[in-house]
Design brief:
Strand order of the largest sheet: 3-5-4-9-10-11-8-12
Distance between the termini: 47 Å
Number of helices: 13
CATH class of the largest domain: Alpha Beta
CATH topology of the largest domain: FAD/NAD(P)-binding domain
Number of domains: 3
Bound molecules: flavin-adenine dinucleotide
Helix content: 25-40%
Structural class: alpha/beta
Oligomer: single chain
Number of strands: 14
């Protein structure tokens, strides 16, 4: 029996645990192969699984399909059929006519998954902050899954320990490639429940963007992300952004959390330690979205664990890494754009022929298109890369 200690019961940790316990049951019953039985324990510092939801909950249909994620219908609080992107000058580009994705009640999703994990024999230990004691699990030979988000203690353990040298591997600190996301859940009953709005501009969210996501019953999640070095301004920027939309409000929930916008490292496995989700980090550096990436890396880690071949994890997530690196380059370009460039970009996109329902992909195509149409941006593009 392989001992698997998963640190973190967010989407990455729970997806890992669920996939392992499901494979444990399915594959032993049918004698399909030599999948190894695993004893799964998930640790989380939170008192209640999924609470508070530190996320806007938006999931693009394109990415969800790519990673094979189908949320239970009762966890979907809004279906997104329109996406409007605003330039600093107030002009906008509207994508409509397709299903672009949905907004999730992540708390409900995580609670459903946690219950399923427990029903299938996994153990979930709450109110447990994992610290240096992680080393014990590693040294007794358990597989340790770092699913503990952007400030991962498991990742810190790896970067500080001689352990990495023993594995002959390197793991770079995330450095400045981190944004701060701040968000409030407020009533905005006039806001259409099928619309997502995204705002760019130096005065709105420098080197980031602001958003409004519907989340049912006339409520919205309104927030923004800026690089960590501008983190001290994030709260004031959000208040100013909210004031553009409502006169007064009472927040049902207010959150602030880091969002990794870094390049995914070459390796996600270090001896018997595997990093998944934001701890890796697998988050999309261009949009800051990380739910699907957390689920995908979690499932891949589970597959590698049950087949006793941890090293295959890196090849299972190779396509995601490639996509991540491409999006990282685009993030660098987007962060280097000035307000006038965004105004030009949105103007260009208005006459742009869409090819997919993926907002990230279309934005990337738009930037390339813009650079072609406005060669003055080529220098900026190369400088950014
Ligand atoms: C404001 C904001 C809005 C966002 N909006 C979106 C969005 O719309 N769409 C999208 O796809 N992504 C979004 N993201 C990103 C998304 O939330 C993350 O990418 C995703 O949550 C990553 O999942 P994870 O399981 O890797 O980490 P997390 O969700 O961070 O889960 C980590 C878990 O580990 C636990 N933990 C941490 N440290 C310890 C410890 N030492 N001991 C025990 N437990 C520990 C935590 O309690 C937590 O439950 C947003 C992020 C922010 C901040």
């Amino acid at each position: 029996m392989v001992g698997v200690d998963i640190v973190g019961a967010g989407p990455a940790g729970l997806a890992t645990a669920l996939e392992i316990v499901q494979r444990n049951t399915r594959e032993q019953v049918w004698w399909l192969n030599q999948a190894m039985p695993c004893a799964v324990t998930v640790y989380d510092e939170k008192e209640k699984i999924g609470e508070p939801q530190r996320c806007a909950g938006g999931v693009g249909l394109w990415m969800a399909g790519r990673v094979g994620f189908e949320p239970p219908p009762n966890t979907i609080v809004a279906n997104v059929r329109r996406v409007t992107i605003y330039a600093p000058n107030g002009k906008y580009w509207e994508m409509k006519g397709m299903n672009y994705g949905y907004v999730l009640d992540r708390t409900k999703l995580e609670q459903i998954w946690a219950e399923q994990v427990q029903n299938l024999g996994g153990l979930i230990i709450q109110k447990r902050i994992v610290k240096e004691d992680i080393a014990c699990s590693v040294h007794v030979g358990n597989v340790v899954v770092g699913a503990d988000g952007p400030n991962s203690v498991v990742r810190q353990f790896l970067t500080q320990q001689d352990y990495l040298y023993l594995q002959n591997k390197q793991l770079q600190p995330l450095g400045q490639d981190m944004h701060i996301g701040v968000q409030k859940t407020i009533m905005m009953d006039y806001y259409p429940q099928d619309l997502i709005e995204v705002y760019f501009g130096e005065k709105v969210a420098p080197k980031g963007y602001a958003w409004i996501f519907p989340c049912g019953n006339g409520m919205v999640r309104i927030g923004l992300g800026v690089p960590v070095e501008l983190g001290s301004q994030a709260g004031a920027l959000l208040e100013r952004f909210i004031a553009r939309h409502v006169v007064e409000y009472e927040a049902k929930c207010s959150i602030a959390k880091q969002i990794p916008t870094a390049r995914m490292p070459k390796k996600g496995v270090y001896g018997n330690v595997v990093l998944v989700g934001d701890a890796l980090p697998a988050t999309d550096p261009l949009t800051g979205g990380g739910i699907c990436q957390a689920i995908m890396t979690g499932k891949a880690a589970a597959e590698a664990i049950v087949y006793g071949d941890l090293e295959c994890y890196d090849s299972l997530i190779a396509w995601l890494r490639k996509e991540n690196h491409r999006r990282y380059r685009m993030k660098t370009v987007i962060c280097s754009l000035k307000d006038q460039d965004f105004n030009d970009l949105i103007e260009t996109m208005r006459s742009f022929h869409l090819k997919s329902s993926s907002i990230g992909k279309e934005l990337r195509r738009g930037v390339v298109h813009l650079i072609r149409k406005k060669p003055r941006l080529i220098g900026k593009f190369f400088k950014a890369l």
